[in-house]
DNA sequence: ACCTGAACACCGTTCAAGT
DNA sequence: ACCTGAACACCGTTCAAGT
């Protein structure tokens, strides 16, 4: 029997690198992830990272999956509708906690994190007695809504993080909307007041329900 | 009466800069828009651009609106459902013609191009006899789906542009899906065959119809 | 008022050289 | 096998100086 060499505590590894990347992204935003900053944080040179990770894109993809995987593998029980709501909310919350995930999920439809969401949603679509010919469309519709809504919310969250007062900012946007040309933007004007005190989370879930209602009609 | 100074044909202006930016983005992709490349194209120094445009972000926002505005101001007649479909398709086609628009629309919910889409969709929601309390949710749902689906499609289009053969690439992804672990990804596996010969455009419109069906249920 | 272009403070990525 | 860090080829943005 051979003894394995003692692994240094602080040895570099893909996991440690990805973990540090997530930390950096969370603390400093998308602009904060730099091979130099990452290397400094891990106490190496920038070149060392390239031994474990091909490039920045791969690093971002891995960081996104690391952040999303827990929510997408959690066991949820309930009706298919309830599970879809839970999955959607899991994505929403992950994006709210890590705003950089919002843009990243929209950047590549073939990345593992997107596949996880698609799969979870698709399984529920199948459980809803949707005819097989509509499976793809139904699952894609939910996916697109979740990623689109998540990205919009993340962008807003990023702006809000830089703003001292959240209510003040939403107030300002609502005021701008209310000030729009009635001939050009009648709807947005009419809806401006609702922006002031709307709950993103509730509205997001209402949107999910809307699509679920549409899917129910496919039976 | 004073004579205005003769305006030089090649004088710099916001419009010329934005036009050149669109051209550069279309020809070279998101990475191709550089203040240096833009300046070279306009036969000036990079600093000159900053007299007309605050920064790169503002330039991207303006370029996005320039590309989307025509489709969003076009007159469309028909039922509210038909108009929503036309608007959604207008966004889809704009993104397909200018893939960089996909990511840009998801980057900032307050940008003018997004407001245009929201307004057009909202007006139709109102025409559909949706109760006022659901206006915001219904319009947002369509918006999120359109932006989410558009971004996904743009990302795919970007990958496909770098690939020699479109069918080969989709074939490869479909094969990868079909090879997934049946225990982890049963749905994606089951649906892999459909990816091979699905029509993005048709599927996108089917998704719009799904949401419209959900909205109809709000009455 | 508008343009010029050098300069500043950064980037991602590579690669010879080390251990 | 894995790490180091200097070097390459870039960026966005600023700003004194020009017209």
The oligomeric state of the chains shown is homodimer
Instruction: Give the biggest beta sheet of chain A.
Output: none
The percentage of residues in β strands of chain A lies in under 5%
Q: What is the first-to-last residue Cα distance of chain A?
A: 62 Å
Mean pLDDT level of chain A: 93
- SSE sequence of chain A, one letter per element: HHHHHHHHHHH
Helix content of chain A: over 70%
Second-tier CATH architecture of the largest domain in chain A: Orthogonal Bundle
Which structural class should the secondary elements of chain A be placed in? mainly alpha
Q: Which two chains touch over the largest interface?
A: A-B, 56 and 56 residues
- The CATH topology of the largest domain in chain A is given as Tetracycline Repressor, domain 2
If you compute it from the alpha carbons, what radius of gyration of chain A comes out, rounded to the nearest whole angstrom? Answer: 21 Å
Low-confidence stretches of chain A: 1-8
- The named CATH superfamily of the largest domain in chain A: Tetracycline Repressor, domain 2
- Overall domain count of chain A: 2
């Amino acid at each position: 029997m051979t003894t394995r060499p003692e692994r240094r505590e602080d040895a570099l590894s893909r996991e440690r690198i990805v973990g540090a990347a997530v930390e950096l992204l969370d603390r400093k935003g998308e602009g904060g992830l730099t091979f130099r900053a990452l290397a400094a944080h891990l106490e190496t040179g920038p070149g060392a990272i390239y031994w474990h990770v091909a490039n920045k894109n791969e690093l971002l993809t891995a960081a996104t999956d690391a952040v999303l995987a827990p929510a997408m593998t959690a066991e949820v029980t309930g009706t298919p509708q309830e599970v879809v709501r839970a999955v959607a909310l899991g994505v929403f919350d992950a994006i709210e906690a890590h705003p950089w995930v919002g843009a990243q999920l929209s950047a590549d439809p073939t990345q593992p994190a997107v596949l996880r969401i698609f799969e979870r949603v698709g399984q529920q679509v199948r459980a809803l007695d949707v005819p097989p010919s509509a499976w793809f469309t139904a699952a894609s519709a939910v996916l697109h809504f979740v990623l689109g809504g998540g990205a919009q919310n993340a962008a807003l969250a990023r702006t809000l993080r830089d703003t001292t007062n959240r209510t003040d900012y939403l107030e300002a946007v609502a005021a701008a909307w209310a000030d729009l040309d009635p001939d050009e933007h009648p709807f947005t004007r009419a809806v401006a007041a609702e922006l002031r005190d709307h709950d993103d989370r509730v509205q997001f879930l209402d949107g999910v329900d809307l699509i679920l209602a549409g899917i129910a009609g496919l039976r």
